[in-house]
Specification:
The chain contains three helices and no strands. The protein is mainly α and about 100 residues long. The protein has a domain of about 60 residues. The radius of gyration is 20 Å and the shape is elongated. The relative contact order is 0.12. The protein binds flavin-adenine dinucleotide.
Amino acid sequence: MGEPDAKGRRRAEMIPGSETIIECDAVIVAFGFQPNPPEWFKDFDIQVNDWNGVIASDKSLYPFQTTNPKIFSGGDMVRGSSLVVEAIAEGRAAGEGILDFLDV
Ligand SMILES: Cc1cc2nc3c(=O)[nH]c(=O)nc-3n(C[C@H](O)[C@H](O)[C@H](O)COP(=O)(O)OP(=O)(O)OC[C@H]3O[C@@H](n4cnc5c(N)ncnc54)[C@H](O)[C@@H]3O)c2cc1C
């Protein structure tokens, strides 16, 4: 980490010559903050917005119902990168939405 800036925040800095090359057959990027909707969403009319988030809302008649009425979605795939507690709350709200939709 570099020296603290004006706000006291230290940032990672490159150390020239410290790079390492690792031979490998495949690289799987297993981190990130962007939704990656699969192709089959189209087959089931699950629509996404301009940043690939699933279109669903807590304000809907049935909270977190997607554009396919039988499919509900919440969490990072709807809201964008957020917190675990938000995902849990939306999962619970979606569960309530499903029960209302099924009228049980
Ligand atoms: C690096 C990083 C650090 C973070 N740190 C914090 C933190 O300190 N505190 C905090 O509160 N939050 C943190 N978050 C955010 C938190 O992890 C997310 O907000 C939360 O996990 C979102 O929950 P989710 O259920 O919406 O999505 P996810 O937790 O991403 O769950 C989605 C699940 O669906 C699975 N899946 C995807 N596609 C398919 C498929 N086709 N079929 C079956 N399963 C599938 C995935 O494998 C995954 O298990 C962090 C996130 C990242 C990336």
